[in-house]
Every structure is written in structure tokens, then in C-alpha cells.
Design goal:
Blueprint: H1 17-66, E1 75-81, E2 91-95, E3 102-110, E4 114-118, E5 127-128, E6 136-138, E7 144-149, E8 152-157, E9 161-163, H2 166-181, E10 186-190, E11 196-200, E12 210-213, E13 233-234, H3 243-246, E14 263-270, E15 273-280, H4 285-293, E16 300-305, E17 310-318, E18 323-328, E19 350-351, E20 355-359, E21 362-366, E22 370-373, E23 376-380, E24 390-396, H5 398-424, H6 436-440, H7 444-454, H8 463-477, E25 495-497, E26 506-508, H9 510-529, H10 540-559, H11 571-621
């Protein structure tokens, strides 16, 4: 805070001028130090006001819900099957404020479905053997080959006999593979050309790798006789690699035999909207499907399912109005159609289906599985078996209302306690904010204790805060006009105030509150929510909300801190800026005073120096100093 430059004085006089001026300036600084202390007190007070406002704002936000009827019109639902078991496997239900209490029989007959196109079978290429001429004779000396499944190698040994057709041979090969690797893993089927086909079983992991190898002793090997070549392999496509790179792993050629193909082009029509997509043959399956899924115009989800080894396209919308159709553009690849790489029907429009639910014997259809009827929101999950139904019970949720009112009492008490503490906190007027110089001479613990007292009681008996508190208390004591006498005050529903020295703290008799809610929940609701008209007064929550709103604004006007505040133009902020301006003026004056002191002492030093020189000259003239001295 000082303005001293580096100066050296006292060379002629021997006086510690720097210390003298420093002491003089300490006296001069007392006035500006008081301004700094005044500013600090204003900033602390502004902070205390804002802390009160934060408490009021929390209560204000909660009371906003307390003045809404929906807070009290709460319902709870239970859903049970005829067996007494919960029915949430099939559907859930939640009741809103407009629900009608009672029991409902509910049966879920159908779920709402998207329009869906899916691969008819696995899209990865199986191991396809060549044509076999029958009959074929398998002898005990020539009936073996090697099969590897995910690196596990086993010998496949076919029963020795004469096979007259493909069906007999297929069955024998399937038995031999089952004996080696277990049933349900590898499937053997036959093609139209009297040939055998090997692939993962329909309900087995499609990501396995299958490799056929000739038996080491060629005399015993039967692999070529079965139509397979040594090293023939099944491998699931890799959707992260380009279609061109994976072309040989597709069951149906995505290029349609056109080696020069560079682009795929097809049109998707979904729920009346059409869009033509163009992709490069170097794009991956994942990229193609992701681009379609993220397109906002067509509103379709597309994905590859590695478990089933199928591609799926379905509308994001559900219901009977949802539809989808996909058509290859001529000359742009072979992704769709019965012989397409994705094995998905082309140029055939399929539709979704509506949800169908029977409520109280009335059949209702909806396009989605989540819908609201008579204030009850249903979320359908699973179809029920024919003839099965559940009972939905809707009843008033008194527990929820009790919890809300309990929370209100707790929050109100917390707010009142905080305000009362601020209003009654001891003020230590002898403890002023410490200056920087004072802090240098004190320990950290001493500074902390001093400042705790210095900022204590800045809102003691504050008229603004006291007025807000008194209005809050008055609202809770005053009966609401126009309501039945047995439900026109908080005392009637089990909420009372404590002793006078507790300054407005509330106490809740939960049993009495539950009794009041059970007797007339609507009357309790009106006690809090009445808007106020010519016949009735405002409900407690409505009146309290208005008081809190006005109180928050009053404190904000005085101390700032309002929502979206860009520039603080509150009363205290303006006073702080005024003190800052006075400090700036005073600091300039202090600089001038210090400079004046230094000029005065500098002139004194010059005079003393001149006198010293004269004295030395006279002494030399009088012979007091020798020429050698």
C-alpha cells in the first residue's frame, strides 16, 4: 500500500531519515487504513447477506413445488398377477396427478414393434463342397479327415458303408463330427447339387473358425471324396474391415460378380420417407451401417449382429404405421435381395405392429410401448400368455405427501435457525479487520481468531433480514381464510411451533398429519396451495413463496448475487466502489506527503552538508588540521 521508492538519507546528518519518515507515514496512513477496514467490513457483510439468500433460495425452490397441487396428488401403484407374483416382467405403471384411484385388470396381448428387415440366414460363407457322385463306398481303410475348430484339431471318422444319396452321407458326417466335437456346434447340410456344406450350427457361436485338412496318411483320407479341398476354411466376416477386403468371406458376393465395382448404391424407404445412400466398396460394414443409423432423415437403426451373423435394419418408430423397404440401385452392387450379400428381401415393404393391451375388458392399441391412459403411464415389456392378466391397484400415496411435508419442516427450520443465528451473533466492535502490517506481527492462529471476531455479528439485529424472518413466521401462524375450521392452519395437521426462545422453529406430529391426510387429503392440499380469491385466502405455501421471492429480491438489491448478474450494482457494491475511490484519492495524497517529507529532509541534508564543508574550511585556515592530516 506504500509508495516509497528506494532512497538513502542521513549521510550528512547521521540521522535515520528512512525510519523517521516511515514512522511519520504510519501516522498518516491511519486514515487510509480505516478506509481499508471499512471496505473489508462491507465485503464481509455483503457475503453474509448472500449466504442468507442462499438459504432462502433453497427454501424458495422447495416451496415452489409445495404450492403445486401435483405435489399432494400423488399415487402409488402395485401390479400383481393372479398368482400374487409381481407383474413388472410384463409391464410397469405409474399414476400421475389426474389418475383415478381403483383397481384395473390389465392384459398385454402384443408389444409395439418396429418395421424390421433382417438377414434370412448367416451372411458369412460356409465351407461348400463339390458335387458328389452316388453311390459312394466308404471303407474302414479310407474314411478319415482332420477338422480344426478354433485351433482344436480332431480326426473325423465316418462310418464305413455304401451311401446311395446325399441325405445318408450328410447324416453320417454329422454323427462323426458330433462324436468329435459334441452336438449342436457344427452343422452339416446339403446343397442342391448333391454337395455337402459345413458351418457353425444355427444356435451356436458364429465367430468360431473351422478348417478342414486331409488325413496325414493319404490312403486313409476321404476329404476329397466328400467334395472338400485341403485347407477349406469357414471364417466369420470382420465388419470393421472393408467390404472389398472381406468379399471372399460373404456367402453371397457383394460385388455381384463385377470385379470393377467401386460403389454400392441403394434406396431405403422408411415410414414414407426415402433416401438413396452411396458408399464405396472400400468402406467397412460397420461404417455403412453406422452412417445409416446416424442419418436424421431416414430414422432407421442398422447394425450387424455377430452372434447371429445377420444384418438388421429397423425403424426407430414403432407401430403399424412404421414401414421399411430397401432396393438395390441397378448396377451398384449386390447387397440386398435373396441372393444379396446381406440376404435381405429387396423391394418388399414390411410394417411394424401396434401394442395391444386390454384394460378393464377394453382393447386399446397404441403405436408405442409407453403411453398414458387416464393419468396412468404404462410401460409394456413382454406379452402375456393367452388368458393371463394382472391387477393394477392405484391408491393415494400418503407416505409420499408425508415425506414432502417433513422435508418442508426440516428445510424451514434449517433456514430459520441460520437466520436467527445471524441476527443474534455477538458483535465485537473493538475487533476491526487487520491491516497488512498488523498481520505481519501475528501468528496464523491469532489472525484466524481475530478475524472470526472481526466479522462476527455483521447482521446482528439487521432490519431487512429480521423483517423477512418475521413475515415468514407470521404466515405459518395465521389461519387461511375460507377453509374449514378443522383444516385452516398448520396446527390442525400436526405442525406447531416450539417455545418462544426457539424463535419460530417448527415441530411435526407425524401421526396427526397422517390422520389429517387420511381424513381429507384435498383439504390439506388447499391449506398449502390455495391461490387466493374473493372467498378464500392464499395457501401457506403460496404466501410463503411470495414472501421469500420478495425477500430474496430485497437482499439481492442490497448485496447483489442475483441470477445472471453481469454487473453488481447493489447498494453495498456501490458503497464499496465509493470507498475504493476514496482509498485511491488518499493513496495519492499519501504519496504526495511522503514525497514532501523526503524533499524537506533532503534540503536539511544539503544544508548540513554545506555547513560541514564550511566548518572544515575554517578549521583548515586556522591551522587546526595539518596538510598531512
Amino acid at each position: 500500500m506504500g509508495y516509497s521508492n528506494l532512497r538513502i538519507g542521513g549521510l550528512a546528518s547521521g540521522i535515520d531519515i528512512d525510519q523517521i519518515i516511515s514512522d511519520l507515514m504510519k501516522v498518516e496512513r491511519t486514515r487510509v487504513d480505516k478506509l481499508y477496514q471499512q471496505k473489508q467490513l462491507l465485503e464481509w457483510q455483503k457475503e453474509d447477506y448472500r449466504n442468507v439468500n442462499l438459504k432462502l433460495k433453497s427454501l424458495y425452490d422447495f416451496v415452489f413445488n409445495m404450492k403445486l397441487q401435483g405435489t399432494y396428488l400423488k399415487y402409488k401403484t402395485t401390479v400383481t398377477l393372479s398368482s400374487g407374483q409381481p407383474a413388472d416382467t410384463y409391464f410397469t405403471a405409474s399414476a400421475g396427478a389426474s389418475a383415478i384411484p381403483g383397481e384395473y385388470t390389465v392384459s398385454v396381448e402384443n408389444l409395439a414393434e418396429s418395421a424390421k428387415l433382417e438377414s434370412g440366414s448367416s451372411i458369412s460363407k460356409p465351407i461348400v463342397g463339390g458335387t458328389i457322385s452316388f453311390p459312394i463306398e466308404v471303407t474302414s481303410n479310407k474314411n478319415k479327415f482332420i477338422m480344426l475348430v478354433d485351433g482344436v484339431e480332431k480326426t473325423i471318422e465316418i462310418e464305413a458303408k455304401t451311401y446311395n444319396n446325399i441325405e445318408e452321407l450328410k447324416a453320417a458326417l454329422q454323427t462323426a463330427i458330433n462324436n468329435a466335437f459334441g452336438e449342436g456346434k457344427i452343422s452339416v447340410s446339403n446343397g442342391q447339387n448333391s454337395n455337402l456344406i459345413i458351418a457353425p450350427a444355427e444356435n451356436y457361436d458364429k465367430s468360431i473358425t473351422i478348417t478342414l485338412k486331409s488325413y496325414p496318411n493319404s490312403e486313409n483320407d476321404i476329404l476329397s471324396a466328400l467334395g472338400f479341398s485341403d485347407g477349406a476354411t469357414y471364417k466369420q466376416i470382420d465388419p470393421s474391415k472393408s467390404i472389398a477386403d472381406q468379399r471372399r468371406y460373404f456367402a453371397n458376393d457383394p460385388f455381384g460378380g463385377n470385379d470393377a465395382l467401386s460403389e454400392f448404391k441403394f434406396t431405403i424407404t422408411a415410414s414414407g420417407k426415402s433416401k438413396t445412400f452411396t458408399f464405396k466398396t472400400t468402406d467397412s460394414l460397420n461404417y455403412i451401417l453406422s452412417a445409416i443409423s446416424s442419418d436424421s432423415e431416414i430414422n432407421v437403426t442398422a447394425y450387424y449382429d455377430p452372434i447371429t451373423d445377420k444384418v438388421v435394419f429397423k425403424t426407430k418408430d414403432t407401430g403399424a404405421s412404421a414401414s421399411i423397404k430397401i432396393v438395390n440401385e441397378p448396377g451398384y452392387g449386390n447387397l440386398f435381395g435373396s441372393g444379396g450379400a446381406f440376404n435381405i428381401n429387396s423391394d418388399v415393404e414390411v410394417y411394424g405392429s401396434n401394442a395391444k393391451v386390454v384394460i378393464k375388458g377394453i382393447t386399446i392399441e397404441k403405436s408405442t410401448n409407453t403411453f398414458t391412459i387416464s393419468g396412468i403411464t404404462f410401460n409394456l415389456k413382454k406379452e402375456m400368455a393367452p388368458g393371463e392378466s394382472a391387477t393394477l391397484k392405484v391408491e393415494r400415496d400418503i407416505d409420499g405427501v408425508v415425506d414432502t411435508i417433513k422435508k418442508f419442516v426440516e428445510l424451514y427450520n434449517e433456514t430459520i435457525d441460520y437466520i436467527n443465528k445471524e441476527l443474534s451473533e455477538q458483535r465485537y466492535r473493538d475487533y476491526l479487520p487487520l491491516t497488512d502490517e498488523q498481520k505481519k506481527e501475528m501468528k496464523e492462529d491469532e489472525i484466524k481468531l481475530w478475524e472470526e471476531r472481526a466479522r462476527s455479528g455483521l447482521l446482528r439485529s439487521d432490519q431487512l433480514v429480521m423483517s423477512i424472518r418475521d413475515k415468514m413466521r407470521e404466515i405459518l401462524y395465521t389461519p387461511v381464510k375460507g377453509l374449514p375450521a378443522e383444516f385452516d392452519s398448520l396446527l390442525d395437521i400436526g405442525i406447531k411451533t416450539g417455545s418462544y426462545y426457539e424463535k419460530g422453529k417448527l415441530y411435526l406430529d407425524e401421526a396427526k398429519l397422517r390422520e389429517a391426510l387420511s381424513k381429507d387429503l384435498d383439504a390439506v392440499m388447499r391449506l398449502f396451495t390455495n391461490a387466493g380469491d374473493s372467498s378464500t385466502g392464499k395457501g401457506i405455501a403460496v404466501s410463503l413463496y411470495d414472501v421469500l421471492k420478495a425477500g430474496i429480491k430485497s437482499i439481492t438489491d442490497k448485496a447483489g448475487g442475483g441470477d445472471f448478474e453481469v454487473f453488481d450494482n447493489s447498494l453495498l457494491a456501490r458503497r464499496i466502489r465509493e470507498v475504493d475511490d476514496r482509498i485511491k484519492i488518499m493513496e495519492e495524497k499519501l504519496k504526495e506527503i511522503e514525497d514532501r517529507y523526503w524533499r524537506q529532509f533532503t534540503e536539511m541534508e544539503k544544508a548540513i552538508s554545506a555547513m560541514n564543508q564550511q566548518s572544515m574550511w575554517l578549521a583548515s585556515q586556522l591551522g587546526l588540521y595539518s596538510s598531512n592530516s
